[in-house]
Design brief:
About 35% of the residues lie in helices and about 15% in strands. It has about 280 residues and is an alpha/beta fold.
Length: about 280
Protein backbone atom coordinates (compact mmCIF):
# COMPACT_ATOMS: atom_id res chain seq x y z
CA UNK A 1 0.00 0.00 0.00
CA UNK A 2 1.30 3.43 -0.89
CA UNK A 3 2.14 5.72 2.01
CA UNK A 4 -0.07 8.76 2.56
CA UNK A 5 2.95 10.90 1.63
CA UNK A 6 3.27 9.13 -1.73
CA UNK A 7 -0.44 9.50 -2.47
CA UNK A 8 -0.47 13.20 -1.61
CA UNK A 9 2.61 13.81 -3.73
CA UNK A 10 1.11 12.02 -6.72
CA UNK A 11 -2.08 14.02 -6.40
CA UNK A 12 -0.12 17.25 -6.11
CA UNK A 13 1.88 16.54 -9.24
CA UNK A 14 -1.21 15.48 -11.18
CA UNK A 15 0.07 11.98 -11.80
CA UNK A 16 -2.43 9.50 -13.23
CA UNK A 17 -2.25 5.89 -14.34
CA UNK A 18 -2.85 7.00 -17.91
CA UNK A 19 0.12 9.37 -17.86
CA UNK A 20 2.42 6.65 -16.55
CA UNK A 21 1.59 4.62 -19.65
CA UNK A 22 2.39 7.47 -22.02
CA UNK A 23 5.01 6.52 -24.60
CA UNK A 24 7.55 8.86 -26.04
CA UNK A 25 8.41 9.08 -29.72
CA UNK A 26 12.04 8.26 -30.55
CA UNK A 27 13.82 9.73 -33.55
CA UNK A 28 17.36 9.85 -34.90
CA UNK A 29 19.08 13.07 -33.92
CA UNK A 30 21.14 12.98 -37.11
CA UNK A 31 18.94 11.35 -39.80
CA UNK A 32 21.66 12.00 -42.36
CA UNK A 33 25.27 12.56 -41.32
CA UNK A 34 26.33 13.80 -37.90
CA UNK A 35 28.11 17.14 -37.83
CA UNK A 36 30.93 15.54 -35.82
CA UNK A 37 31.85 11.91 -36.53
CA UNK A 38 32.32 9.48 -33.66
CA UNK A 39 35.11 6.93 -33.49
CA UNK A 40 32.35 4.40 -32.68
CA UNK A 41 30.24 4.05 -35.83
CA UNK A 42 27.63 2.02 -33.92
CA UNK A 43 27.00 4.75 -31.34
CA UNK A 44 23.95 6.63 -32.63
CA UNK A 45 22.43 9.76 -31.13
CA UNK A 46 18.66 9.78 -30.56
CA UNK A 47 16.02 11.86 -28.86
CA UNK A 48 12.83 10.58 -27.26
CA UNK A 49 10.13 13.24 -27.18
CA UNK A 50 7.44 13.25 -24.49
CA UNK A 51 4.78 15.85 -25.20
CA UNK A 52 2.06 16.91 -22.73
CA UNK A 53 -1.58 17.01 -23.75
CA UNK A 54 -2.09 19.91 -26.12
CA UNK A 55 -4.70 21.45 -23.83
CA UNK A 56 -2.17 21.48 -21.00
CA UNK A 57 0.92 22.54 -22.97
CA UNK A 58 2.68 25.53 -21.41
CA UNK A 59 5.04 26.05 -24.33
CA UNK A 60 8.04 25.04 -22.25
CA UNK A 61 10.44 22.19 -23.06
CA UNK A 62 13.42 20.56 -21.34
CA UNK A 63 16.22 18.67 -23.10
CA UNK A 64 17.51 16.02 -20.70
CA UNK A 65 21.12 14.73 -20.64
CA UNK A 66 21.48 11.57 -18.50
CA UNK A 67 24.76 10.88 -16.76
CA UNK A 68 27.23 8.02 -16.88
CA UNK A 69 30.75 9.40 -16.69
CA UNK A 70 30.87 10.01 -20.47
CA UNK A 71 31.19 6.21 -20.84
CA UNK A 72 27.54 5.08 -20.71
CA UNK A 73 24.10 6.58 -20.03
CA UNK A 74 21.65 6.11 -17.15
CA UNK A 75 18.70 6.57 -19.50
CA UNK A 76 15.87 5.58 -17.16
CA UNK A 77 16.10 7.20 -13.70
CA UNK A 78 18.06 10.14 -15.14
CA UNK A 79 15.95 10.38 -18.27
CA UNK A 80 12.69 8.69 -19.21
CA UNK A 81 11.31 8.44 -15.68
CA UNK A 82 11.07 12.23 -15.51
CA UNK A 83 8.55 12.42 -18.37
CA UNK A 84 5.41 12.28 -16.23
CA UNK A 85 6.72 14.91 -13.82
CA UNK A 86 7.25 17.41 -16.63
CA UNK A 87 4.27 16.48 -18.81
CA UNK A 88 1.85 16.98 -15.94
CA UNK A 89 3.10 20.55 -15.69
CA UNK A 90 2.52 21.06 -19.40
CA UNK A 91 6.26 20.82 -20.13
CA UNK A 92 7.66 18.73 -22.98
CA UNK A 93 10.59 16.47 -22.07
CA UNK A 94 13.15 15.53 -24.71
CA UNK A 95 15.51 12.80 -23.49
CA UNK A 96 18.82 12.86 -25.34
CA UNK A 97 20.82 9.72 -25.99
CA UNK A 98 24.08 11.47 -26.81
CA UNK A 99 27.14 9.74 -28.19
CA UNK A 100 30.18 9.06 -26.04
CA UNK A 101 33.20 11.30 -26.65
CA UNK A 102 36.03 8.73 -26.58
CA UNK A 103 38.29 11.74 -26.08
CA UNK A 104 36.55 13.93 -28.69
CA UNK A 105 34.55 16.40 -26.62
CA UNK A 106 32.81 17.82 -29.69
CA UNK A 107 30.85 14.59 -30.23
CA UNK A 108 28.50 14.98 -27.22
CA UNK A 109 28.60 18.76 -27.43
CA UNK A 110 27.38 18.68 -31.04
CA UNK A 111 24.63 16.22 -30.05
CA UNK A 112 23.37 18.41 -27.22
CA UNK A 113 23.41 21.53 -29.37
CA UNK A 114 21.59 19.72 -32.16
CA UNK A 115 18.95 18.48 -29.72
CA UNK A 116 18.10 22.04 -28.71
CA UNK A 117 18.11 23.15 -32.34
CA UNK A 118 15.79 20.26 -33.22
CA UNK A 119 13.30 21.30 -30.54
CA UNK A 120 13.34 24.85 -31.91
CA UNK A 121 12.82 23.57 -35.47
CA UNK A 122 9.77 21.58 -34.31
CA UNK A 123 8.50 24.26 -31.94
CA UNK A 124 5.28 25.03 -33.82
CA UNK A 125 4.12 21.42 -34.24
CA UNK A 126 5.16 20.48 -30.69
CA UNK A 127 3.47 23.58 -29.19
CA UNK A 128 6.73 24.89 -27.75
CA UNK A 129 7.93 28.48 -27.40
CA UNK A 130 11.38 28.87 -28.93
CA UNK A 131 12.41 31.18 -26.07
CA UNK A 132 11.44 28.71 -23.32
CA UNK A 133 13.70 25.70 -23.86
CA UNK A 134 15.90 24.49 -21.04
CA UNK A 135 18.61 21.88 -20.62
CA UNK A 136 18.83 19.41 -17.75
CA UNK A 137 21.72 17.14 -16.83
CA UNK A 138 22.83 14.61 -14.23
CA UNK A 139 26.45 13.99 -13.17
CA UNK A 140 28.52 13.94 -16.40
CA UNK A 141 25.29 14.89 -18.19
CA UNK A 142 25.32 17.90 -15.87
CA UNK A 143 28.74 18.78 -17.21
CA UNK A 144 27.40 18.51 -20.74
CA UNK A 145 24.33 20.61 -19.85
CA UNK A 146 26.42 23.29 -18.11
CA UNK A 147 28.84 23.27 -21.05
CA UNK A 148 25.94 24.06 -23.40
CA UNK A 149 24.63 26.67 -20.96
CA UNK A 150 27.98 28.47 -20.82
CA UNK A 151 29.32 27.92 -24.34
CA UNK A 152 26.45 27.56 -26.84
CA UNK A 153 25.17 30.49 -28.87
CA UNK A 154 22.25 31.24 -31.18
CA UNK A 155 19.65 28.51 -31.70
CA UNK A 156 21.74 26.05 -29.63
CA UNK A 157 21.65 28.17 -26.46
CA UNK A 158 19.20 27.11 -23.72
CA UNK A 159 17.00 29.55 -21.80
CA UNK A 160 17.44 27.84 -18.42
CA UNK A 161 19.36 24.94 -16.88
CA UNK A 162 18.60 22.21 -14.33
CA UNK A 163 21.60 20.39 -12.86
CA UNK A 164 21.61 17.37 -10.56
CA UNK A 165 24.88 16.48 -8.76
CA UNK A 166 26.74 17.82 -11.82
CA UNK A 167 30.34 17.47 -12.83
CA UNK A 168 31.20 21.14 -13.42
CA UNK A 169 34.95 21.52 -13.28
CA UNK A 170 37.79 19.83 -15.13
CA UNK A 171 40.18 20.83 -12.33
CA UNK A 172 41.71 17.49 -11.37
CA UNK A 173 41.46 18.34 -7.69
CA UNK A 174 37.64 18.43 -7.77
CA UNK A 175 36.45 16.80 -10.96
CA UNK A 176 35.23 13.25 -11.58
CA UNK A 177 38.32 11.61 -13.07
CA UNK A 178 36.45 9.25 -15.41
CA UNK A 179 34.38 12.08 -16.85
CA UNK A 180 37.49 14.24 -17.21
CA UNK A 181 39.48 11.58 -19.04
CA UNK A 182 36.66 10.38 -21.28
CA UNK A 183 35.67 13.93 -22.24
CA UNK A 184 39.11 15.46 -22.81
CA UNK A 185 41.05 12.36 -23.85
CA UNK A 186 44.59 11.40 -22.93
CA UNK A 187 47.65 13.62 -23.19
CA UNK A 188 51.37 12.96 -23.17
CA UNK A 189 53.83 14.25 -20.61
CA UNK A 190 55.66 16.68 -22.86
CA UNK A 191 55.18 20.40 -22.30
CA UNK A 192 53.11 20.96 -25.44
CA UNK A 193 50.58 18.26 -24.53
CA UNK A 194 50.36 19.39 -20.94
CA UNK A 195 49.85 23.00 -22.02
CA UNK A 196 46.97 21.92 -24.26
CA UNK A 197 45.47 19.84 -21.45
CA UNK A 198 45.55 22.83 -19.10
CA UNK A 199 43.94 25.01 -21.75
CA UNK A 200 41.09 22.54 -22.23
CA UNK A 201 40.68 22.05 -18.49
CA UNK A 202 40.20 25.80 -18.15
CA UNK A 203 37.83 26.05 -21.11
CA UNK A 204 35.58 23.26 -19.85
CA UNK A 205 35.68 24.13 -16.18
CA UNK A 206 32.28 25.68 -16.52
CA UNK A 207 32.36 27.61 -13.26
CA UNK A 208 35.07 29.70 -14.96
CA UNK A 209 32.89 30.34 -18.03
CA UNK A 210 29.87 31.92 -16.33
CA UNK A 211 28.95 35.43 -17.40
CA UNK A 212 25.92 37.68 -17.15
CA UNK A 213 24.24 36.03 -20.14
CA UNK A 214 24.40 32.53 -18.62
CA UNK A 215 20.82 31.23 -18.19
CA UNK A 216 19.15 30.89 -14.80
CA UNK A 217 19.78 27.63 -12.95
CA UNK A 218 18.40 25.07 -10.50
CA UNK A 219 21.02 22.90 -8.77
CA UNK A 220 20.42 19.85 -6.55
CA UNK A 221 23.30 18.14 -4.73
CA UNK A 222 23.98 15.70 -1.90
CA UNK A 223 26.40 16.79 0.82
CA UNK A 224 27.76 13.23 1.11
CA UNK A 225 28.39 12.70 -2.63
CA UNK A 226 31.67 10.78 -2.82
CA UNK A 227 31.69 10.41 -6.62
CA UNK A 228 31.34 14.06 -7.64
CA UNK A 229 32.19 16.47 -4.80
CA UNK A 230 29.38 18.91 -4.03
CA UNK A 231 31.99 21.66 -4.46
CA UNK A 232 31.37 21.30 -8.22
CA UNK A 233 27.81 22.56 -7.94
CA UNK A 234 28.55 24.96 -5.09
CA UNK A 235 31.35 26.73 -6.96
CA UNK A 236 29.11 27.00 -10.03
CA UNK A 237 26.35 28.56 -7.93
CA UNK A 238 28.80 31.07 -6.45
CA UNK A 239 29.81 32.20 -9.93
CA UNK A 240 26.18 32.48 -11.01
CA UNK A 241 25.51 34.61 -7.94
CA UNK A 242 28.60 36.73 -8.61
CA UNK A 243 27.38 37.43 -12.16
CA UNK A 244 23.78 38.22 -11.12
CA UNK A 245 22.36 35.08 -12.75
CA UNK A 246 19.20 33.90 -10.92
CA UNK A 247 19.90 30.51 -9.35
CA UNK A 248 18.41 28.15 -6.78
CA UNK A 249 20.76 25.81 -4.88
CA UNK A 250 19.57 22.77 -2.88
CA UNK A 251 22.07 20.67 -0.92
CA UNK A 252 20.55 17.61 0.76
CA UNK A 253 22.20 16.05 3.84
CA UNK A 254 22.53 12.56 2.36
CA UNK A 255 21.73 10.47 -0.66
CA UNK A 256 25.12 10.06 -2.27
CA UNK A 257 25.33 10.18 -6.03
CA UNK A 258 23.16 9.12 -8.94
CA UNK A 259 19.68 9.15 -7.40
CA UNK A 260 17.84 10.79 -10.31
CA UNK A 261 14.11 10.14 -10.03
CA UNK A 262 14.45 7.18 -7.66
CA UNK A 263 12.00 7.30 -4.76
CA UNK A 264 14.67 5.57 -2.65
CA UNK A 265 16.49 8.92 -2.50
CA UNK A 266 15.64 10.16 1.03
CA UNK A 267 14.73 13.63 -0.28
CA UNK A 268 12.95 12.58 -3.47
CA UNK A 269 9.72 14.37 -2.56
CA UNK A 270 11.60 17.47 -1.46
CA UNK A 271 13.43 17.77 -4.77
CA UNK A 272 10.35 17.28 -6.96
CA UNK A 273 8.34 19.84 -4.96
CA UNK A 274 11.22 22.32 -5.03
CA UNK A 275 11.89 21.84 -8.73
CA UNK A 276 8.18 22.27 -9.46
CA UNK A 277 8.12 25.51 -7.45
CA UNK A 278 11.22 26.80 -9.24
CA UNK A 279 9.73 26.05 -12.66
CA UNK A 280 6.64 28.05 -11.66
CA UNK A 281 8.77 31.03 -10.59
CA UNK A 282 9.52 32.30 -14.11
Amino acid sequence: MKSLKSILTMLFLGVSAASFSQKGATMDLWPNEAAVASSDANDKAEITVYLPDVAKASGRAVVCCPGGGYSHLAMDHEGHQWATFFNNQGIALVVLKYRMPHGNRMVPISDAEEAIKTVRRHAAEWHIHKSDIGIMGFSAGGHLASTIATHATGDAAPNFQILFYPVITMDQGFTHKGSHDNFLGTFGDDKKDQKELKRLEFEYSNELQVNRTTPRAFLALSDDDKAVPAANGLNYYQQLYKHDVPASLHIYPSGGHGWGYRESFPYHYNVVFELKAWLQSF
